[in-house]
Predict the structure of MazG family protein.
Amino acid sequence: MSDEVTDPHDATDPLRAAAEVMRQVRERCVWSRAMTHRELLPYLLEESYELIEAVERDDRAELREELGDLLWQVLFHAAIAAQDPEDPFDIDDVARTLSEKMTRRHPHVFGDAVATTPEEVLVHWNAAKAAEKHTRRSVLDGIPRGMPALALAQKMLGRAAKRGVDAGPPTGAATETPASEAELGDALLALVATARARGWDAERALRERTRALEDAVRIAEAKD
């Protein structure tokens, strides 16, 4: 990013102005100067959850504000990265990397490939992603283990299915299937209530079961 000072109230380039506000805050605010990537993570999680809530509530004003708060986190991390003594990069580098990646992953938009359905788009996306991540050896590589247990389980199940690993309910488990997403929510809440009544940790229980699923997938891959 250029060292030239940009008016933080410049309406002609709001994104550049926001980046300049962040730069000045990072340089002149004592609290912001002290922040590291790791110390910012709780705020990133909090802002992400607040954005999710705004979407689920269909609150347009809140959505606009929370998108801005999440953008601020991106700008903040980029400002910290720009000061790294060994491997510095700034928000321009982040944006450039993003643009290059999205161009590669949309050959039906920026190239000669054809995609007339969402399914065909995913084929191109997955092919481009596989080419970028060619060093990965497992279908589970790239899954953030720090995800909440429920999101992690859903992600892991999708990858397990690609390897043909069945993760159906164990013998003796309840087999009643909810007929809607609302009923699924009721069933999940009832399970959490059961865990609470019996002194079990629902988050840990699902995470441990997901870990067993991961072991099964890696065993299947090792046999190839």
Notes: The chain has a mean pLDDT of 89. The CA atoms of residues 149 and 205 lie 9 Å apart.
